[in-house]
Amino acid sequence: MSSELDKKLAQADGYLARFKRETLGHLIDGKSVAGQGEVFDNHSPVDGQLLGRVASGTEAEVAAACESARDAFGTWRALDGSERRRLLHKVADCIEQRADEIALVECMDTGQAWRFMSKAALRGAENFRFFADRAPDAANGLSLPTNTHMNYTVRQPLGPVGVITPWNTPFMLSTWKIAPALAAGCTVVHKPAEWSPLTARLLAEIMLEAGLPAGVVNLVNGIGETTGRALTQHDAIRAVGFIGESTTGGLIMAQGAPTLKRVHLELGGKNPVIVFDDADLDRALDAVVFMIYSLNGERCTSSSRLLVQRSIHDEFVAKLAQRVAKLRVGHPLDPRTEVGPLVHARHCEKVLSYADIARADGATVAVGGTRAAGADLPAGGQWVQPTLFTHASTKMRIAQEEIFGPVLTVIPFDDEAEAIRTANDVRYGLAGYLWTGDVGRANRVALALDAGMIWVNSENVRHLPTPFGGMKSSGIGRDGGDYSFDFYMDTKNVALALGQHAIAKMGV
Ligand code: NAD
């Protein structure tokens, strides 16, 4: 064991101790609430150790959180935008001060490797700063004059909103939803995922410490089907910002329909990376490996289908297989680790089950497909070998279903038309990546792909003002920049007569 790992483990143990001592409850109206609901265990995917017990929010607790958010809304929306900006920058400062704690807790709760998570808290802080700076202008609208009327638009915050987040990179994703909601003037009730609830608590505490008034942000832990459902059904909640699986997204819409909730859904993906034979193949190889094996492949924008032109297929795939076989699976806190354990035993079983599915459908398991083992992998962890399926075709389950692990499916193609057809032949449409040296082709293919985000000759590099979101079963709505404010705010038009227009006379 490296001394660096020992040091990080000792630090992580220190930060985790509080969660082991006491059942994790909720934060409602600025106060810690123990929770009266059913309690569930939260185990670390690293070694199976009990990280603590978590109370699942009851309907009454969810209602209390929603009512607190409703009560706080009047004050929060009335604050000057510059004051909201100041407070949200303060949140970012506090996140930065506790960045190591957040990253270490997140690694142990999710299994994500330190190499990627060490920056997660800082990215969360950046989300707060980005939206903080836009808070003073969020209400601005258009002037739309006619000869008879002055029309102007303003945006106003919707009201209390629900935020429901998944387990894969919970801290960053929570900030991505909560920061714009607060900047817009909305208040929030957050329900994090039951498999990795710890850093949501740190975030909620940080926001209170930074000076957000009680009730502006509330946190309710719990199971999706009960606590989450209650949040989506509560009358006070005007909209739900959701990140998770596509089937759950459908449920959120249905549950919110009777109370006419606005929904924003960021859902699953089966994203293609298309490599043409005229591409810079060395850079393409780096990006292909990075975009499926980083973050354990538990990433909505991972490129889980590699479409590679037949003329370069054998050589490219041989090099790829060598790289995949050499990926370092290890303890997430070891800085050398490239792939950590998967989040939960159930998810690990699901991911591993695809090796048999691949064989049964006639594909080749070129690398991995089994549990990873080794003297330095703690017992009780959810270890899998990074996996490569080759000789696949588009109708196979490994080419259609979101596996959400370090698993890549390779499909050969002959020409541009076939590449586009295959890329679009899935229910999802979140992201698409393509590699080519031909500018015309780059644009043709980018426009033809059914996906909300396309990267050309690049891995996923985010720029916060740009729209983030998916087509088809990958979601509804866009986050990022002003797109986030369009979701969390209502646009109002005000028409003022200039005084001369004719008004139809009736009953004279
Ligand atoms: P999930 O849908 O199982 O759960 C997400 C959240 O929804 C959890 O907090 C869960 O408790 C809650 N939930 C479950 N059922 C609910 C219900 N009936 N009502 C209200 N809430 C409910 O997803 P997951 O397994 O936690 O996350 C993995 C999925 O998230 C993958 O499909 C991945 O692609 C997707 N994801 C998408 C994005 C994106 O931006 N598009 C980002 C990250 C993850």
Structure description:
This protein is α/β, with parallel strands linked by helices. It has helices at residues 3-21, 59-78, 81-97, 99-110, 114-117, 120-134, 170-184, 198-209, 224-233, 246-256, 281-293, 310-325, 345-361, 397-400, 416-423, 439-448, 481-488; strands at 26-28, 31-33, 39-43, 50-55, 149-157, 160-164, 187-191, 217-219, 239-243, 262-266, 271-275, 303-309, 364-367, 387-390, 407-413, 428-429, 431-435, 453-456, 471-472, 475-476, 489-497. It is globular and about 85 Å long. It folds into two domains: 8-267 and 474-492, Aldehyde Dehydrogenase, Chain A, domain 1; 272-456, Aldehyde Dehydrogenase, Chain A, domain 2 (3-Layer(aba) Sandwich). The protein has a seven-stranded mixed beta sheet, with helices on both faces. α16 (439-448) links the parallel β17 and β18. It has 17 helices and 21 strands. The model has no long low-confidence stretch (mean pLDDT 97). Bound molecules: nicotinamide-adenine-dinucleotide (NAD). Nicotinamide-adenine-dinucleotide binds at residues 164-168, 173, 191-194, 224-225, 228-229, 232, 243-245, 248, 251-252, 255, 266-269, 300, 402, 404, 430, 470, 475. Residues 164-168, 173, 191-194, 224-225, 228-229, 232, 243-245, 248, 251-252, 255, 266-269, 300, 402, 404, 430, 470, 475 line the site of nicotinamide-adenine-dinucleotide.
